[in-house]
Amino acid sequence: MEPVHPIEHLRYVARSRGGDPADLARETAIALGSLRADPANLVVASRRIVGRHPEAGQMWWLCAQLLLADDPSSLAWDLADRLVADPVVDVLTRGLPECATVVTIGDPRTIGDALAERPDLRVWCADSGHRAVDLLRRLDRAEVACEPVPTEALARAIEHADGVLVECAAACPQRVLAALGSQVVAAAAHAVGTPVWLVAPTGTRLPNPYVDEVARHTIADAEWDASLDDLAVDLIDIVVNADGCSPNVAVALRPECSFAPELLRTGIV
After folding, report:
1. Alpha-carbon gap, residue 186 to 194, rounded angstroms
2. Is the domain of 152 the same as that of 54?
């Protein structure tokens, strides 16, 4: 098979819809690493790709770091590797208590990767966007005890669980965006004293302006058709990131990248 030109690779990523944000960012990193664009063209390419996937937190993380790097091409390959082998999976796998019962929502990729390595756990899956079935199939193949939780039984399940696991799409100390329904399950857990674990995959802890931009495209002005929830930060008990499991929520949600204002500017470079 002939290699794909980096420009065609970027076009393919730009046209992709419904893909996992980490996968989209990884493909973008590979394309930009191969492209070896000069600084001006890298700005243009980065703006265009985040413009096509503004909901993907990892895309903002990737492009911000490349725009501020001395050697963006080499860094792009390093970041692609980090997205493939996300250390957060191992942190969560090791951090969950033995034989615990946990509630999840939707089909969180990083949480699913970790749970699949823990056959001692019991998982109750709440639905979001008809995606929980994918997690159930995955855990069933890994021989992890799991079952769907009907809406009418969700509050009772949360009360009897050892923890609620929510995965963020983008987060900062001031704001957390997560799957639809996350606010409901976190509020229910908070009301009965069940700890809420927020899992922050690599690339999702961002400067506040980027989180607000993700929210603008997924939540703002939406009534019933929002694609993400604004999860209240004060409902979170533990944050799981690449550094470990921490009850210090504000510190654990500090950005993983610096702010590159070029990504939010429009017009002539």
Report:
1. 9
2. no
User: Domain check: are 106 and 192 in the same one?
Assistant: yes
> Domain span at residue 119?
87-252
- Residue 171, classed as helix, strand or coil, is strand
Residue 212 Cα distances to 169, 175, 222, 227, angstroms: 12, 8, 14, 14
Q: How many CA atoms lie within 13 A of 173 on its CB side?
A: 9
Q: Count CA within 13 A, CB hemisphere, residue 32.
A: 37
Using one digit for the tens of pLDDT, what is the confidence trace for 234-257?
Answer: 999 999 999 999 999 999 999 999
Q: Which amino acid is at 86?
A: D
* Same domain flag for 195 and 93: yes
State the Cα angle at 152 between 147 and 158, rounded to 5°: 60
Identity of residue 181: G
For residues 101 and 160, the answer to whether their CB atoms sit within 8 Å is yes
**C-alpha–C-alpha distance, residues 249 and 123, integer Å:** 24
pLDDT single digits (tens) 122-157: 999 999 988 999 999 999 999 999 999 999 999 999
Within 10 angstroms of residue 262's Cβ, the number of other Cβ atoms is 17
Whether residue 58 contacts residue 205, with contact meaning beta carbons closer than 8 Å, is answered with no
What are the pLDDT digits (tens) for 59-76? 999 999 999 999 988 998
